[in-house]
Amino acid sequence: MERTCLVVSKQKKLIAASAALMAIATQVHAQSSVQLYGIVDTWVGAQRYPGKSLSWQEGGGGLSTSFWGFGGKEDLGDGYKAIFAIEGFFRPQNGAYGSFNGDPMFSRNAYVGLSTPAGTLTLGRQSSLLYLQACQFNPFYASFTFSPTIVQMYAGLGTYPAYKTDQGIIGGTAWSNAVQYATPELYGLSGHAMYAFGDSSTGNGSKQYSLQASYRNGGFAAGGVYQYANFNSTAGDLNGLLKGFHGQSAAQLAASYEFSAAKLYGEYTYTNDSVINRNFHVNMVEGGLSIAVGTSRILASYAYSRDSGGLDQTRQTATLAYDYPLSKRTDIYAAYMYDRLTGLSSGETAGVGIRSRF
Prior knowledge:
Blueprint: H1 2-31, E1 32-48, E2 55-60, E3 67-77, E4 80-91, E5 96-97, E6 109-116, E7 119-127, H2 129-136, H3 148-154, E8 174-182, E9 189-196, E10 208-217, E11 220-230, E12 245-258, E13 262-275, E14 278-293, E15 296-308, E16 314-325, E17 330-341, E18 347-357
Antiparallel strand pairs: 1-2, 1-3, 1-18, 3-4, 4-5, 4-6, 6-7, 7-8, 8-9, 9-10, 10-11, 11-12, 12-13, 13-14, 14-15, 15-16, 16-17, 17-18
């Protein structure tokens, strides 16, 4: 009888110990997590840059630039969390890393930070605030192939030497050596501030700063952002396009409104370019909409830019697309873009693609 009691007692202790270990494991899992995620997007079609000949191709990144990444958080208690993200673009058509040759392996984001009740502080390479807002307030989001907004703002100033233009944003879509602070959201209002160090004791290098604020209320959203990027006048930055390019300031106001079956978008972007002994500016306006047709969407957008004092160009870009979901993670699409710059024959891009999220 005594032996039986001892066995029962040991079993109870083992059960209690197992329960305690399971509780600890569950608590640790809840406090710390790491997630792998990304997008694979590729398309097939024809493309002709303004002033160039038509080419047939299979490209990576139709509606989205393909990327992969992993990020995580650790609950430190009392509303504090340690966070990190490491993300890199890649080209599925040939397996190369980066969105273009020379792009760093983890070019999208590579940061670590601390989330607190008073806001979030992050350090490392981070997507620029202007780029994120420009993506948010156009129906094609971050598409370098079909978004009139992104094509006009970021596919220029030497990024695509197939055509010559002085319109566009310098500094890229992500800033290295950056420190960012994000406020908590309060009554729909939130804000961000970012500064990127030049990491040099002499010269201007790549010192950059940006401020952004946004507001959300029901179906309405609006945002405003300002950024400044400084460049050495003698370092060779963009000298192939504009000799003596010194720096650029850019400001954007944007808004969107979502109805039951449609969403409207609008953006106005002003850039002021500083070149040694002279300045010139560019005005850009964009309008777009997304219409739900069952579970699919029709996307449309138009952007118009005009520079003054540079190459004196105007640019008009318009895109129409149809996006059909095969599942929650995978969709297929067809899109056509028309692109026209002053003094050049029209550019066109047409294709069909598939996009999968993981």
